[in-house]
Amino acid sequence: MVAACLTGWAHSQFGKLDNVDAEVLLADVAQAALDDAGLSPEQIDSIHVGTFNGGFLYQDFPSSLIFNRIPGLRFKPATRYENACATGSAAVHGGLQSIEAGKATHVLVIGFEKMTELATPQVGEVLLKCSYAREEAGIPGGFAGVFGTIAQAYFERYGDQSDALARIAAKNHRNGSVNPYAHMRRDFGYDFCRNVSEKNPFVAGPLKRTDCSMVSDGAAALVISKADVARSMPKAVGFRAAVQVNDYLPLSRRDPLAFEGGQHAWRQALGVAGVSLKDLSLVETHDCFTIAELIEYEAMGLAKPGQGASVLAEGLTEKNGLLPVNPSGGLKAKGHPVGATGVSMHVMAAMQLTGTAGDMQIPDAKLAGVFNMGGAAVANYVSILEAR
């Protein structure tokens, strides 16, 4: 049990935000989260900013940018966090650790990214820095090529999984079509996702365009408060567990189809929370590519290795299934502005647990799991959240 609660949150539109400056994006979502928690900037004890950047923007060193727009935060300790595609969750953990160390009562966590300032090939080059450059930098297709290689290896070991990947893509696009924050609000249907076409070509290995998350801009923010203080606040979502597990960076040092770091993170988090997968109302998981979600079913324990497709065939992860996965549309439809993703996933789960998720809502949601990973299951974060 973590003695902290989410007490306020906010989420920007995800997409190609041409007319929104990164500094404005950061401040707007932060102010909205403060307002949601009913707090003034002066009541915040520390600020935790997650952004991968790595070349998306010329402006680096973003921790104090927010002071320009919210001067009430000036002179507060502010730190930038980075852990590849799990950067947002790294910032969340930084905030939690400040509270657990007794240094803060309320913290502000912000994740943001402006990816579309660069052309898509350049974005691919930046993201490839999340791989082991000495061995993997030459993989064609950028990070899509890394996961295309993983998908091809999975197909060779366990058989063609094209049907399963198309089911994941169709599910997440269907879910995302009712998410007002999603980059892509369109239900493409299974047939479009399953078949190669001019609008859905192969991108890397067996992965088609509908198997790949989009290049997106966006931001999300959270206020995290001490649990005893949160009891008197308008709303609170508690942390039953918050676990981080890192694995080897090189794919050559591990089985790339096992996501062992994710397995350890899920096992530890469920143990700390004292629950099983059957107790969860929903999961928001890291579907940067559909093959990732398929392997994550196995890593979390929904299926044995190589049998993730059975989860889809039985409809277990549909919104009306036993364990809805990515009712927000996931990274696939909602978008994947790298630094914002982990924070966004916590916001989506908090909305579900407070019954404020609108058309995305899972009825009577009580417990939610969040899995955010950096690289190909290198930095693995699992949160178990509960309604209070």
Describe the structure.
- This protein has 388 residues and is of the alpha/beta class.
- It has a domain of 131 residues: Thiolase/Chalcone synthase (Peroxisomal Thiolase, Chain A, domain 1, 3-Layer(aba) Sandwich), CATH 3.40.47.
- Helix content is 35%, strand content 19%.
- It contains 13 helices and 11 strands.
- A 9-stranded mixed β-sheet has the order 3-2-4-7-1-8-11-10-9. Strands 5-6 form a two-stranded antiparallel sheet.
- Strand 5 and strand 6 form a beta hairpin.
- The model has no long low-confidence stretch (mean pLDDT 97).
Distance between the termini: 13 Å
Tell me about the largest β-sheet. Answer: 9 strands, mixed
- Give me the CATH architecture of the domain at 4-117 and 215-231, please: 3-Layer(aba) Sandwich
CATH topology of the domain at 4-117 and 215-231: Peroxisomal Thiolase, Chain A, domain 1
Q: Would you tell me the overall average pLDDT?
A: 97
**Measured on Cα atoms, how large is the radius of gyration?**
19 Å
CATH superfamily of the domain at 4-117 and 215-231: Thiolase/Chalcone synthase
Low-confidence stretches: none
Could you say which overall geometry the principal axes of the C-alpha atoms support?
A: globular
Structural class: alpha/beta
- Widest beta sheet: strand line-up: 3-2-4-7-1-8-11-10-9
Strand content: 15-25%
**Any idea of the CATH class of the domain at 4-117 and 215-231?**
Alpha Beta
Number of strands: 11
Number of helices: 13
Task: Assign a percent range to the helix content.
Answer: 25-40%
Protein name: Acetyl-CoA acetyltransferase
Domain Thiolase C-terminal: 250-386
Domain Thiolase N-terminal: 13-183
Pfam family, one: Thiolase_C_1
